[in-house]
Amino acid sequence: MNEHQIGIVGGGLAGLTAALALSRHGYDIAVFESVPYPHHKVCGEYLSNEILPYLDALDINLFAAGGKAITRFEISSIQGKKAECQLPLGGVGISRYAIDHLLYQTAKQRKVTFYFEKVSDIRFDGKGFTVVSRQRSVRASIVIGAYGKRSGLDKTLNRSFIQKKTDWLALKVHYTYPEFPDDLVALHNFKGGYGGLSNTESGHVNFCYLAQYKVFKEFKEVSAFNERIVSQNPHLRDFLRKAEPIFEDSLSIGQISFESKEPVVNHILMCGDTAGLIHPLCGNGMAMAIHSGKLVSECVHDFFNGRHKKRPDLEEAYKKSWNQNFKDRLRYGRIFQRLLLQPQLLHWGIATLAQSETWLQKMITKTHGKIVSS
Fold it and tell me: Which of 35, 106, 147, 310 lies at a 20 to 30 A Cα distance from 335?
């Protein structure tokens, strides 16, 4: 049986960030990721600048990788009424295909071990963990859960949110659309959902949207849903009629849950979307995932250094850190989503926000954090 000090289940932004941060201290780290890099993931692909100083400390430069500097935000109601503002911090447009691969290559250079295998179980025996996949079982003193929004592992671990039905699915496609500005991220609403548009390092525009399944299920094909529902918003109708899809098929995720989640489950330290998923408002999930990778790595390093004497001390410290940094942001995200799903209120709200850039910036700030440094 292979043994490592730290096992990280999930090689997305949170898991890779934790691996990179911990590798600086010489730990023996193994990351489990089900699919080899590079690959696309369903994601808004906009990253707030709040996290750039920390990425710089990890020797990750997103602009050198082709990331687009984003400075403007716009939001529209179903009827097409728009409000616009300058982003308080700004951001970067970059695909998960590019940023995940960049983090992976850097982690490989730092001797992080990767197992491209799907984990079926994580067992704690009082002293440590056994991470189980079809190919192998691996022992680790600490396990970090970073396997994304939803997984069979959540059922295995009997997490409470997984027992509840959820009405959300997400779809993503890249398009060629030269008219879309590099410096803009846009959030457009339609019946039962909303979608974001932003440019990526490849010059392709990422269109990723959330839709309520009860609305989506009336249509047999994505193209029909886009034509009949998404295109009710005139801005999205114009985009879809002029843009050319790069993907043969949409990438999709079903049963997305925005329910509250626990940051520690069966002694596993959860981070990224595995610990809490924020509702999109000028999308900040990518920055939160990276930030959570930083927080969990710091707590784990303190544990190995003896600052946290026992495992319960480590777990309590991480829970406190997670809640201090993200609890309020997740709460505001839930509030804003309720607004987005009330068409008349949303239309009135956007008409009001269109008169005051300051108020729109304040709303965005509520779902974003302060500058994160090393």
Answer: 147
